[in-house]
Each structure stands twice: as C-alpha cells, then as structure tokens.
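User: Can you recover a sequence for this backbone? Please restate the input before giving your answer.

Assistant: Of course. Working from this structure:
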C-alpha cells in the first residue's frame, strides 16, 4: 500500500472535508521536539507570524488575507490566544509552525478544537507535527474533556497522525463515508472498523 500512497499526486486526490473527534483527553501521546526547535505560546504581535505561517503553508493566498482572518476570528480574544495558541520556533526563536487549542461547537456542544495547524514548507518533514499536536492536546486538556478537528482527504498524512492520536472519524453523510473509504485506501488501514 505504501507504493500506492507515494504514487498519489496531491492534485489527483479527491477532496472531501473530514471531521474527527477525540472522545476524551486521556492518554495524550508524548513526542519529543527535535533539537533546535521549541514551543511557546502566543505573544502580543504574533498575529503577523501566524498570518505568515498560514499563508506559507497554503491556507491563504496572501499574508494580508491571513491577517484579516486572524483578526476576524481571534482579534477579540487576545487573552485566550496567549493561553491557547502555540508556536514552534526555530533556533533563532522565529515562529515556523502553529496551532491553536481552541473551541467550537460540535453536535450542539462547545468542545475543544484543534484549529489552524500549519508548518512553513521549508520546515515540513522535520518531525514537528507530533510534538506540536501533543502540546496542543495537553493545553486543550486544561479547558475541555474532548476535542474535534476538521481536515480533508488531501491531508491524508495528517489524518493518519490524528488517528494515531486518538481522534475518530465522524461520519454523517454518504460523502463523509466516501472520504473515509478513500482514507482507508490511502493509509492502508481499516479506519471505520476501528471505531
């Protein structure tokens, strides 16, 4: 199955939105941060770094658009961002990755949400995502007893990591089921049966 994954071109993978839930905050996996990197929380002025990282990771067409989104979504919540938004920094203390242990509504309840996970391309593939996710889940556990996230089939490697971190598929529609069948094929594992 590995050959099949490697042969998939990112543009050829059908895009399905996926939602995943972690039913509790117990047993959060540990992952060591590689040498030269560290994790810190949001500081005043970090919205510029957040926008730069998210734009570089392909979430926005420009840093200005990312900054507008940041201000719309988080602008009134600076105190919460100082507790919930995390940055991976390089050896020069420059932020190169981020995620937020935020919150949102799922099935009528407000629960934790892993939100806006991104690492700039030149630092991707350096084993930063797992320690960042571990730190975000530990942060989340201070505020919530379960969490969710949204992702997509084109991020199948991240989906595999989320599954390994205790997140489970949320399947509500035939389109969701099709997305998870695709994930089973791309990841070479039975996912829906694991539930």
């Amino acid at each position: 199955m590995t050959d099949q994954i490697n042969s998939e071109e990112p543009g050829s993978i059908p895009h399905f939105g996926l939602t995943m839930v972690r039913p509790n905050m117990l047993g959060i996996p540990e992952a060591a941060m590689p040498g030269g990197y560290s994790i810190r929380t949001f500081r005043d002025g970090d919205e510029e770094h957040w926008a730069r990282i998210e734009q570089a990771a392909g979430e926005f067409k420009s840093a200005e658009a990312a900054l507008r989104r940041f201000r719309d979504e988080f602008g009134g919540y600076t105190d919460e961002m100082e507790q919930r938004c995390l940055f991976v920094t390089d050896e020069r203390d420059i932020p190169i990755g981020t995620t937020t242990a935020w919150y949102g509504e799922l099935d009528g309840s407000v629960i934790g949400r892993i939100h806006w996970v991104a690492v700039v391309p030149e630092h991707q593939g350096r084993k930063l995502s797992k320690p960042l996710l571990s730190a975000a889940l530990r942060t989340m556990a201070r505020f919530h007893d379960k969490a969710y996230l949204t992702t997509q089939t084109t991020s199948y490697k991240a989906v595999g990591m989320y599954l390994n971190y205790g997140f489970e598929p949320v399947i509500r529609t035939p389109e969701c089921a099709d997305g998870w069948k695709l994930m089973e094929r791309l990841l070479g594992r039975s996912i829906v049966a694991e539930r």
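That completes the design. DSSP finds seven helices and seven strands in the chain.
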